[in-house]
Amino acid sequence: MKKQSALLLICSFLLSVQLWAQERTIRGTVISADDQTPLPGVSVRIAENESVGTITDIDGKYELKVGSDATALIFSFVGFERKKVAIGAENTINVSLRTSSLDLNEVVVTANAIVREKKELGYAVTTIDGEETTKARDANVLNTMAGKVPGVRVTSQSGSLGGGAKIIIRGATSLSGNNQPLFVVDGNPLSNSGFNGTRNDIITGGVDVGNRAADINPDDIESISVLKGAAATVLYGSRAKNGAIIITTKSGKSLKGSGKKTAVTLNSSVRFDNPLRLPDFQNEYAQGDQGNYDAQNFANGWGPKINGQRVLDWKGDSTNLRAYPDNVKNFYETGATYINSVSLSQGDENGDFRFGYTNLSQSGIIPNSSLERNTFTINSGRQLTEKLHMQVAGSYINTVTEGNARQGGNNPSTTIALINGLPRTISQEELQNNVVDEFGNPYGLDGNRTINNPYWVTAHNNTLNDVDRFYGNATLNYKFSDNVSATYRLANDFYSDVRENVMRKGTLGRVNGEYEVRDIFYNSINSELMLNVSKQLNEDFKFDGLFGHNVNQRSVNSTRIQGADLLAKDLYTYANAQSISNTSDSELRRLYGLFAQLRFGYKDYLFLELTGRNDWSSTLPVDNRSYFYPGASASFMFSEILPESTKEWLFSGKLRANIAAVGSDEDPYRLNFFFTPLSDAFTQFVPNLLYPHNGRPAFAATNTIPNANLKPQRQITKEFGTELIFFGGRLRTDINYYNIQTKDQIVQLTVPQSTGFNLKTVNAGTIQNEGIEILLSGIPVQLDNGFTWTSTFNFGSNKQIVKELAPGLEEYTLTSGFSGLQIKAEEGEEFGLYGGGYVRSPNGDVVIDETTGLRQFESGVRLGDIYPDWTLGINNEFSYKGVTASFLIDIRKGGVIYSNTVQDLRFSGLAAETAENGRADFVDEGVNVVRDGSGAITGYKPNETSVSAQDYWQQISNNSLAEPSTYAADFVKLRELKIGYNLPKRWIANSPFASVSIGIEGRNLWLIDSEVPHIDPEVNFFGTSLTGEGVEFASVPSTRTIGFNLRVTL
After folding, report:
1. What is the DSSP letter of 917?
2. Where is the TonB-dependent receptor-like beta-barrel domain (predicted)?
3. CB under 8 Å to 174, separation ≥6 — which residues?
4. Are 114 and 224 in a shared domain?
5. DSSP H or E segment with residue 606
6. HSE on the CB side for 943, CA within 13 Å?
7. C-beta atoms surrounding 185 within 10 Å
8. Which of 197, 230, 249 is the last residue of a domain?
9. Residue 326 has what pLDDT?
10. Rg from Cα positions in the chain
C-alpha cells in the first residue's frame, strides 16, 4: 500500500511538472486603432474559458498565463469592437481595437435630455455622430441627415442660399399641415418655422426663406438622436407628436493624453456650387409662332429653323440668327462657400468650458446673391458645491441673405421663369450687356417693355433676409443623495427676422416701384422642473423615477409695411412712397404640463417603462384644454440569458415593444371670430390689386365658423422591434414595425354659402400610417493590415391611408394652387395630387378629338400619391492607415411630381423634345369616340387625325392640364462623397499640433436615375410646413457641391 501511495505521489509530481512546463505567459499592449493611444481596463480572456483572464493597466499593458490548450485570446472593451486573436508561437501579442457603434450597451440622449443606456429602451432611437454633420457639410444641417436614418425623409426645397429642408418622420399624420418633428437643443425646444410660426408658412413672395433649424451650427453638434414614436417623445408633450430631433452640443474637455488644459480646434472648408441639373433645350428653332419669326414673341420657340438668316433682334438691331446652346447655363454662376470655425475647450473634475465661433460666407449660383452667417456659442458647467452643479449653454446667430431669387411664374421679378424662357437666339453676354437703354430705362425682352431682363431683376429688385437669433438655457442639478436629485432648466429661444423686398422704379409690371419690410419676432420661454429617483431595490430589481412640471409660452409678433409708387429711384424709405400700408399680426399661446416616467429593471436584461403626461393648452376650450396621454414600453435583452458560447456568433440581442398615445392642440384664436388685415402678398396674380385700398387699411372678417367645443387631436402608436449584433460587432440589424392611428383631426370643412361663411372648424378624420424600418450595418472586410470596409443600409417603408373623414365627406383639400392643382386627402387613399388629366376609354387609352387631333382632358383627376413608398440609404466607408473614403447613395421610390418648368418649356417650344422629327405633323396615339345617331357612345376606334407639333405641345402643356407634366418622383442620387486623411502622429510629434486632417467632400453630386425631365425631382415649391409636396414651379435649381476641408487641433 505504501509503495502504491509513493508511486501515485511521484506520478502526480511528474504530471504537475509537465503541466507547468506547458504553461506560458502572454504579454502585450492594447491600443486604440483610431488615435494609437493605450487603452486601460480592456478585458483579456482565454477563448476556451472566458472566466480566466485579466485587464490592461493604465498603459494598456497586460500579462496572462495560458495553458497549452489555449488557442486564442478575446479582447473586449466598452465602446470598442470585440476582437479574437489566435495564440501563435510568439509570447507577445499586441492588439489595436476599433471603436464600435454596434454595442447595445451604448448610451443615448432621450427626451428631456436624459441619458439612457440603449439596452433599456423599448422604442427605436437612431443616433448620428456630430462629426457626420461637418463632413460633406451643408449650410442647412438637416440636409446632412438625408439617407442616414430609417423612416426619416429629408427633402431639400430648392437651390436658394439658406434654402429650406423638410423633414418627415414615419409619414405625414396631420391634415392641418404640421407634420415636422420637434427640435430640441440641450433640452431647449426650438422653433423650426419657415415664416411666422403658425400661419401662412410658405415660400413668401416666391422666395425660399428657409427654416430656422438651419440656424443650428454643425460645428457645435456632439450628437443627434432621432426619436420616432410617441413612446419616445411623450415627455415632450403635444409639440413632439411628429417625433423629435434631440441635439446635444459639444461641451468642454481637455485634450486627451496631451497634458494640455485647453484644446483649440480649427476647422476650415471651401466648397463650390453649380446647378445639378438644367433643362435640355432645343437649339434648332428661333422665337416666333407657327414657323414665322417674331422678335417680340419672347419665351416662344415656335419660329423658323435657325439657318443664319438676317433678322431684327429684340433690340431692333439687324443680326444673323444663330443659336446659343449655353445661354441659360452661362447665366448661373459658380457659387462659393467659405466656412471657418475655431473652438476653445477645457475641462476637469470641477467643471468644463467651451467657446466656439463659426463664420459662413457664401455666394450663390444666382448673380448678386450672398449669405453671411456668424455663430457664437458657449457651453460651460461648474460643480458649485459637492451637491450642486450648474450648466449654461447658449448660441447667438446672425444670418444675412441677399439676392435670393423669387420663384414661381406670376411675378414680374421671377428670375428662374425669365431665364428659362430665354429664346435660343439670345446670348447670355448680350442679355447682360443690354439691361438698360441710353436713357437708363430697362429693356423689355419682348421689345414692348413688358418682360424684364433677368439681370435687371438680380441687380435692382433685391430680397433681403436678416435674422438675429439667440437660444440658450441654464440648468441646475442638485443631488440630495445618491438616490435622489432635482433638475431645473430655464430655456429661451428668440429671433427677429427682418425681410426686405424691393422692386425698383421702372420694373416692368411694377413701373412705379415698391418697397416692403416685414418684421417677425418669435419668442419662446420654456421652464422645466424634474425630480429624479433611483433605487436598487434588491439584487435583481432596480427602479428609476422621473417626475416633472413644464411651462411653455410662445409668442409671434409680425408687422408688414409696404410703400408703393416710389418718387425717386434707388431711395428705399417710406418717405419716398406715395402710398403706404401697414398691417400687423400677433399670437400668444401657453402650455402647462405634468409628466412622470417610471422605469423598472430586472437583472439588467428585462426593462419596463411607464410614462404619462397631462397638458393644459390655452388654444383649446376650457372644458377640453386638459388632456392626458400615457405610454408603456418594454425591452428584453434575451442574449443575456443565453449560454456564453453564443457570444461567438450572437454578440447581443434585444426585443422591444411599446404602445403610447399623444394629444395635440390647435393654433391660437380658432375658438372665436377675428378679423385679419388684407395685403397684396397673395394677389400677385391680379394686376393693380393692392391693399390697403387708396391708402386705407382693409380688414376682412373671418370666413370660418369657430368651434367652442374643439377636442385635442389624439394619436396612438404601436411599435415592435428587435436589435441584433452578430460576430463580435461585424453585423448589426435593427428592424422595426409601427402602426400610427391619428384621430380627431382639427380641420376646416366647407359649409353652404347660405350660412354666410365658407368654412367651419371641426374634429374629424382618421389617418393611419404603417411601416417597416430596417437598419443593416456590417463590416464585410476587416484585414490585419488595418483595411476596413463598413457598409450600412437604411430602409424605410411607410403606407399612409386616410381611414375616414367627416360624415358625408369623401375628400378634403389640403393645399391648392395654380393650373387647377390640388393636394387632397381622400378616404381609402394616401394624400394625392389632383389636377387636369386625360379623358380615357374603359381600356385606359387616351381619348382624342377626331376633328382636331388633340387630346381631351378633364379636371379633378387623381395623378398619384405625393409621398414615396419607400426610401433607402446605402453608405459605404473604407479606411486604411489614416485614410477614409465613403459614399452615400440615396434612393426614393414612389410618389409623383408635377413640374411647371416642364410645362412652360414645352408650351413655349423651348424643350428639346419639342424639336423632335423636324416638327412634322403626326398622328397621336389614342382613340376616337364612336357615337350613334343619338350621341350615345357605342365604342372607340384608333385615332387617324393628324396634328401639328406646335398644336400638340401647346395643348398638352396648357395650364389646365397637369397630367402630361406629372412624373413618377423616383430617383437615385449620389448624395455624399468624402475622402479624408489623418496625418500620422509621428509626423506631427514635434509640432504644436495634436492632430491634423484634410479632406475632399461632395454633396448632391450625381442624379443617377430619374424619369423626370429637365429638373431635379427633389425640389418642392410649397415650402417646409405645408402638407403640399410633389409640385415644382420655376424653382431655383438644386446644386452640386465639391469642397475641401482642413481640421487642426492644438
Report:
1. G
2. 441-832
3. 242, 713, 742, 745, 767, 1027
4. yes
5. strand 606-617
6. 23
7. 25
8. 249
9. 95
10. 33
Residues 6+ apart with CB under 8 A from 900: 409, 818, 819, 965, 1021, 1031, 1032, 1033, 1034
Q: Are 497 and 465 in contact (CB under 8 A)?
A: yes
pTM for the full model?
Answer: 0.86
CA-to-CA distance for 218 and 128, rounded, in angstroms? 12
For the record, the C-alpha cell of 66 comes out as 495560458
Nearest to 633 by CA among 4, 1048, 111, 34: 111
**234 in a structural domain:** yes
pLDDT digits (tens, 9 = 90+) for 736-791: 999 999 999 888 887 777 777 778 888 888 999 999 999 999 999 988 888 999 99
Phi, psi of 435 (to 5 degrees): -80, -40
User: Looking at this protein, which amino acid is placed at residue 653?
Assistant: G
Per DSSP bridges, beta strands 759-763 and 704-705 are parallel
User: Look-up: residue for cell 412634322?
Assistant: 920
Reading the block at residue 962, the C-alpha cell is 397637369
In this structure, the number of other CB atoms found within 10 A of the CB of residue 260 comes to 14
Q: Which domain holds residue 171?
A: 107-249
Phi/psi region, residue 719 (left: phi>0; alpha: psi -120 to 50; beta: rest), is beta
Sign, CA torsion 146/150/152/155: positive
Name the phi and psi angles at 552, rounded to 5.
-130, 125
Integer Cα distance of 1028 and 1020 in angstroms: 8
Q: Do 118 and 226 fall into the same domain?
A: yes
Same domain, 129 and 208: yes
Evaluate if residue 38 carries a pLDDT over 90.
Answer: no
CA distances from residue 1019 to 899, 1023, 1028 in whole angstroms, order as listed = 10, 9, 12
Query: Whose CA is closest to 380, among 414, 345, 415?
Result: 345
Query: Which grid coordinates belong to 438?
Result: 441710353
pLDDT tens digits along 523-552: 999 999 999 999 989 989 999 999 999 999
Give the length of the chain: 1050
Q: Rounded to an integer, what distance in angstroms lies between the CA atom of residue 143 and that of residue 153?
A: 10
Distance CA 759, CA 612 (A): 35
**241 and 203, same domain (yes or no):** yes
The answer to whether 911 and 816 are in contact (CB under 8 A) is no
Q: What's the number of domains the chain is made of? A: 2
Contacts of 706 (CB under 8 A, 6+ apart): 670, 671, 672, 673, 761
How many Å apart are CA 211 and CA 215, to the nearest integer? 8
126 and 775 Cβ atoms separated by less than 8 Å: yes
CA distance 734 to 877: 19
H or E segment and range at residue 886: strand 883-893
| 3-state SS, one letter per residue, for 1014-1042 | CCCCCCCCCCCCCCCCCEECCCCCCEEEE
Helix residue spans in 693-770 (DSSP H): none
Nearest CA among 460, 469, 454 for reference residue 501: 460
| φ, ψ of residue 166 in degrees (nearest 5) | -100, 135
93 and 122: one domain? no
C-alpha 4: how far from chain center: 84
Cell of 86: 489566435
Alpha helices, H only, 908-1013:
949-956
Q: What is the pLDDT of the chain when averaged over all its residues?
A: 87
- Better pLDDT: 488 or 648: 488
**CATH number for the domain including 186?**
2.170.130.10
Residue 299 lies in a domain: no
* DSSP-assigned states of every residue in 247-260: EEE----PPTTT--
786, burial (CB in 10 Å: exposed 0-12, middle 13-18, buried 19+):
middle
Residues forming beta bridges with residue 781, ordered by sequence position: 789
CB burial string 190-204: b at 16+ within 10 A, e below: bbbbbbbbbbbbbbb
Rounded to whole angstroms, how far apart are CA atoms 341 and 267? 5
Residue 87 belongs to domain with CATH number:
2.60.40.1120
Evaluate whether 455 touches 434 at the Cβ level (below 8 Å). Answer: no
Residue 1 CB partners (closer than 8 Å, separation 6+): none
